Amino acid sequence: MADDMPPSGCGPDERNAAKRSGNPEGFGEKNRPYHHPAKERRARPFEFFTRLNLTQLLGLKALNLTELLQHIRAVPGSSIYHHTHRFLQQHIYLSPEPPNDFAYWVTEVLGDERLGERLASIDTIQYSDIRSLRDKIASTLERYLEENPRGARKFADEGEEFHMMASMSFILSTGLKAGTLPEFATILETINVDSIYFHMFESRLKLHRPSNDFSVWLDRDMGLSQLAAEFARLDPYTQTLEGLRKSLLHILGKRRVQPHGHAE
Question: What pLDDT is attached to residue 32?
């Protein structure tokens, strides 16, 4: 059973991506104050990557909670990732609800709203790797079945079984790099949302990083710990991808960082 992220079909391997994106150990100890002239400071450029995604059917399906639990314990990590992030990937402009496929199926197909609420309340952002997220989902199901043995007797109708799937990602460079904050804001303003998704969600879980790529670069390479912390405090799971872009640009705007071509 592998708890790694979907394999990259091309592009940098994980070690190069880790070096390129930042220090896996997280933010520096010093919380340096922000100085406006630093927005023109040149550091090691931030390279923007994007991703292509393919969905794979695993040939496994669940008719009830017992079978669902068995599959969650056995499938590769790329399957857990797919079923907890699919809605985020598909909803660019709309609110990303429900938060995961498991909660939706349990509520809408099995009609178990109580368990559905428990699964929906799992705060994905608290988990920095797929293994711990898998364990939380599985333990929630296990505890519920112990408290409510009859829950295992609810079966999905034919054609409404839960089909286990997995995500395979192909990581590609966009060819865009930013060495200053204005350059970073300029690219962030127009970059494809798949790039924002990769740097805010996928790389954090794939590389077991404590934060998103943007925050790590701001702290390690730009020396802007406070700004990095503001990015890190965002909860990307409560926003659409376009809303997340706006939130990131808003934080930069508060620091008087404007994309090139914009008046301050």
Answer: 34
DSSP state of 76: -
For 214, the token pair is: 């943007």
Q: Say if CB 170 and CB 51 are below 8 A apart.
A: yes
Tell me the CA distances in angstroms from 56 to 34, 164, 255, one per residue in order.
45, 9, 43
pTM here is: 0.70
pLDDT tens digits along 208-246:
777 899 999 999 999 999 999 999 999 888 888 899 999
253 exposed, middle or buried (CB, 10 Å; 0-12, 13-18, 19+)? Answer: middle
Cα separation, 45 vs 86, in Å, equals 30
What SS3 string covers 160-211?
Answer: CCEEEEEEEEEEEEEEEEECCHHHHHHHHHHCCHHHHHHHHHHHHHHCCCCC
**Angle (CA) 28 30 35, round 5°:** 110
Please state, as a whole number, how many other Cβ atoms lie within 10 Å of the Cβ of residue 15: 9
Residue 7 Cα to chain centre, angstroms: 15
